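Q: Sequence in, structure out?
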Amino acid sequence: MKKLLPLILVSILAIPFLGLAQEGQIPPLPNVPLTVQIVIEWMTTIANFMFAGLIFLAVIFLLIAGFRYLTAGGDATKIQTASRLIIYALVGVGIGIFAKGLIYLICSIVGVEHCVFF
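A: Exactly. Output:
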């Protein structure tokens, strides 16, 4: 099971990238100058993808921690390990939300009109 778990996780994480595979020709890029708004839009797009992956991983970690709680059988070290997993998952989600908020704050300071938060 320990050898199979990383393979399962990698295959689950690869599924969204399979949907991005497209056939056909890529249209040429228009001759658009690089502006602050375009850079901010790129940042928000990258942050949205990373945030979705972070939430997915946090759910996986919470499920693993819950399973470890259920199978601890009163063993204090296993319970402590499960508690740490829960804390690490919640801290990761908190940092992800802070990062998304930071991008939104940068959008409002710079004055970008179409900054998508979620």
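The mean pLDDT is 78.
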